[in-house]
Amino acid sequence: MIQRAWKGSAVKQSLLFFLLLFASSTAFAQSDGIDDEKAIKLLSGGLNTDAAARRHLAELRVIAAATPYKLEVIVGVSHQLLGWGWQDSESKNIIRTCANAAAAISADNEGFRRIAASVGRLNDAERSTYAALSALEHEGIPVWQILAHLIGESELQTRALSSKRLLRPRKTAEILLAGFDEKYAGAAEREVRKAGRAPIVNQQSSQASGPSSGQVPDRGIGNYQADVIRVRLVPSLSAQGKAVQTLLIDWKNTGTLPIGQVNATVTFFDADGRQLDEIKNWSVFATYDRKKMIKPGQAHEELNKDGFVFMTPDGSKAATAKAVLTKVAGLPSL
């Protein structure tokens, strides 16, 4: 029977993949102390096959390498999430996002497990969202603030909606994960770096990069884009009556979603083009009010009262300034 099976090239490729994946898992097991076969058996119940469980375990190892949490804890959390009806990709997203939230508040392995479990239980349509959200609040996460700002209600009204079972559990989980991503993205990886480990690149990192047009990577909420229209240096007086310059940055929403936050790195130059100073990640615009967000196609002209007062120690003036957008997002972190 085995000899006949080897005659099929598809079977050969399948077995070869299985053997390579098994060898890779065995190598990892020596370093992270987890029993692969037990983990696969645990995960296969929610993934239907051992092959799917092996792939899932390999992906969990990549996630664990970018967080301060133990792989065995992450495997246990994944087992719970799959058992509660979350799909493969959904469970991994919950783990990544909750690991960031847990790391941001310095939660230990048990704290991370409780946070992920509380979010995971929101997949049960028969359960009230209030218990799960209250559990997250107990862990130290400002969950009512996060939800209130994202759904456009007060914290008091959000609590009331939850207690009256008017918030759909799964939709609440989706909104909450988006809020976690907005507030905590990259926190787990930063903790790993502090510990002196070299994490595998986190695919959900919120670190903005790229062209000066201000485009930032899609973070799961939307693709926010903006362009700098002009950078102005306006003569003005400081509160002490000294002659200073006020930096004003005008920009336009060139994306498809309303913008609530814009940061920029600004470089100041003298008349000869020499750099005088640089301000990194200056908050150009921020609002917590959805009604004041800048709509797609709308331009924002910065008012003098909102500008950055520029003044060098020796009193020299800047002739020009250059602004490169470093963050363009929805509502600011709460």
Overview of the structural elements:
The structure is a single chain. Strands 1, 2, 5 and 6 form a four-stranded antiparallel sheet that branches. The protein has 334 residues and is an alpha+beta fold. Helix 3 (36-47) crosses helix 4, helix 3 (36-47) packs parallel to helix 5 (71-83) and helix 5 (71-83) runs parallel beside helix 7 (109-120). It has helices spanning 2-5, 9-32, 36-47, 50-65, 71-83, 88-104, 109-120, 129-139, 143-151, 155-163, 169-184, 187-194, and strands spanning 226-237, 243-253, 261-269, 275-286, 299-300, 308-310, 320-329. 45% of the residues lie in helices and 18% in strands. Mean pLDDT is 78; it is low at 1-31 and 198-222.
Low-confidence stretches at least 5 residues in length (pLDDT < 50)?
A: 1-31, 198-222
Compute the average pLDDT: 78
The portion of residues forming beta strands comes to 15-25%
Shape: elongated
What order do the helices and strands follow?
Answer: HHHHHHHHHHHHEEEEEEE
Q: What is the overall number of helices?
A: 12
- Determine the structural class based on helices, strands and strand pairing: alpha+beta
Q: How far apart are the first and last residues' alpha carbons, in Å?
A: 62 Å
Query: What is the helical fraction, as a range of percent?
Result: 40-55%
Q: Gyration radius, to the nearest Å?
A: 25 Å
- Total strands: 7
Taking the sheet with the most strands, its summary is: 4 strands, antiparallel
